[in-house]
Amino acid sequence: MTSFALALVLTSAFLHAFWNLATKRVNGGVEAVWLFTTISTVVFGPVALIVCLIERPHIGPIQLVFLAGSGLLQMVYFVTLVRGYAVGDLSVVYPLARGTGPLLATFLAVVLLGERPGALTIAGALLICSGVFLIATGGRRGLAHASPIAVAYGIGTGLIIGSYTVWDGHAVGALAIPAILQAWSADAARAVYLSPYAHRHRGRVRQLWREHRRDVLTVGVLSSLSYMMVLTAMSFSPVSSIAPAREISILIGTIMGVLILKEPLRPIRLVAAAIIVTGVIAVVLG
User: Fold this and answer.
1) Are the C-beta atoms of residues 226 and 91 closer than 8 Å to each other?
2) Residue 6 CA to its chain's centroid (Å)
3) Of 16, 78, 100, 20, which is closest to residue 261 (Cα–Cα)?
């Protein structure tokens, strides 16, 4: 992994953890997802248009399929994530989701994209996932106290993350779709898909906007910006390296959950943090 790719991944990790904290504070549902994605679509639309006018990328039928499909996958991701936050702690749902995702993404990158990560990269990915599950569960005792529904939402979200990571990685890599266009199209498609639901629940949409305007704006801007950075890194780096490395955001998100939301911190999570950092270093060196 190049130093530029690493810088993109680390910056994205900070932004990712920050917008997940804001999502937890909103504590909304599908109507919140529509608000987030509509804001992202409006804010980044002009930038995506300028990039397309400058780069003039080839957009054929297969590119259109990948642009539309990304929106569908990420709509399911956002809806699952916010519902998970509604029933469980940030420090449980977030690490489980982010830990399951890179493991699946690495596997799919090998099987579907033909990538061949080295032994150090694979070992690092396994270390990251192990540390993530320790953070999420706090060991067996922590898992016993976690809501089974929250755990299910966390793992389910992770499976979706792994799927859309490989999907988008192929789009910006092999198909040469600009990262900002791929991210913006996913936002626009989500906004369209969810518009009928948002219209039926427009009272709740207005309420969320009145009560959580700052957090809604934070998620709307930072969620897309952080992902654009990851897509940019994946456009010239293997998915099997980028997907695990970006999970350093788990440490940041867990610390935020403990310090800001007053969620419990167990000693075993400190051990898990060391494991995750070691895993990230191994992936970077691999």
Assistant:
1) no
2) 17
3) 20
In whole angstroms, give the CA distance from residue 101 to residue 98.
5
pLDDT band at 60 (very low <50, low <70, confident <90, very high): very high
Do 143 and 137 form a contact (C-beta atoms < 8 A)? yes
**Residue whose token pair is 């970077």:** 284
Question: Would you give the DSSP letter of residue 88?
Answer: S
Q: What is the pLDDT of residue 138?
A: 61
The Cα–Cα gap between 77 and 193 comes to 13
3-class secondary structure, 264: coil
**Global pTM?**
0.81
- Take residue 25 and report the two structure tokens written for it: 């504070």
136-161 pLDDT, tens digit per residue, is: 666 555 555 667 888 888 888 889 98
Euclidean distance between CA atoms 23 and 17, whole angstroms:
10
CA distances from 280 to 86, 110, 123 (A): 30, 19, 10
Contacts of residue 160, Cβ cutoff 8 Å, sequence gap at least 6: 73, 76, 77, 80, 101
- C-alpha 156/C-alpha 133 separation (Å) is 14
pLDDT digits (tens, 9 = 90+) for 82-106: 788 777 776 677 777 777 888 888 8
Q: Count of H helices and E strands in the chain?
A: 13, 0
Tokens of 239: 């998915």
